[in-house]
Amino acid sequence: MSVIYFLISAVLLFWHSAWDALLGDPHSLSTDWAWVLGIVFLVLTVRVALFPLFLRQVRSQQALQRLQPRFQALRAKHQGDPQSLQRELTEMYQQEKVSPFGAFLPMLIQFPIFIGLLHVLRHLNPAITDVATRTLYGWSEPQFLDASGAHLFGAPIAATFQAGGTVQIVAGVLILAMITTTFLTTRMSILKTGWSENPQQRTVQKIMLYGIPLSLLVSGLIFPVGVILYWTTQNVFALGQQIWLNRRYPATAVVTTDG
């Protein structure tokens, strides 16, 4: 994971330096804007880098949607014989060059990035006094001191909800935005393709729609403000991306069969 920590730090420091040079001393409304915008543009960098995978995800979802009638026919044919069903499904996916897991690839790639950012921001602890620790992952000591003292509307970006006061207000607003955008993006994605006829897949869809937002409520209480800002920003981008997707690739009607 050290490579990821270095990469995240490099991108964050690059954008902070760029905004610091552009804005001079961008501190207003009790906010260190160079660091806040650094986190926002870290999200933008990740989203742009993952866009080709996002398009691949879209095509994978469309292909799976087209294969729904064949899937239902195979399920009816092999009812009570899951091994034969799985074998023919595997052959169908190979023949059509479709991966049922292609839709999850961007999410899997984003996970270590998110964990890396969480680690880097937790590392920005003002209580750390050891110079060697402060300068991990390519940070200089002045950069560490500046970032560890950065604020978003008066809330330190390295602080968590438990800090109380202003942090709880800022974190609470971000958590609410994070949950809302997650729910809306997931709902739009599900409604575009439709609820699955497969009971197991339908259960997964319900877990994604309701379970993930609830888990973010719990996670948001322990994440630093900077991480919540990252996640909320990436959700806003994801929501905009989903709106664009629904307009650019409208859902096609799929004829279903009873099984």
UniProtKB/TrEMBL annotation:
Keywords attached to this entry: Cell membrane, Chaperone, Membrane, Protein transport, Transmembrane, Transmembrane helix, Transport
Name assigned to this protein: Membrane protein insertase YidC
Lipid bilayer topology: Multi-pass membrane protein
Membrane insertase YidC/Oxa/ALB C-terminal domain residues: 35-247
Domain of life from the UniProt record: Bacteria
Keyword Protein transport: yes
Keyword Chaperone: yes
Compartments it resides in: Cell membrane; Membrane
Subunit structure: Interacts with the Sec translocase complex via SecD. Specifically interacts with transmembrane segments of nascent integral membrane proteins during membrane integration.
Family note: Belongs to the OXA1/ALB3/YidC family. Type 1 subfamily.
InterPro entries linked to this entry: YidC/ALB3/OXA1/COX18, YidC/Oxa/ALB_C, YidC_ALB_C
Known function: Required for the insertion and/or proper folding and/or complex formation of integral membrane proteins into the membrane. Involved in integration of membrane proteins that insert both dependently and independently of the Sec translocase complex, as well as at least some lipoproteins. Aids folding of multispanning membrane proteins.
Transmembrane segments: 33-55, 101-121, 166-186, 207-231
Alphabetized GO MF terms: membrane insertase activity
Taxonomic placement: Bacteria, Bacillati, Actinomycetota, Actinomycetes, Micromonosporales
Any GO CC annotation of this UniProt entry: plasma membrane
One record GO biological process: protein insertion into membrane
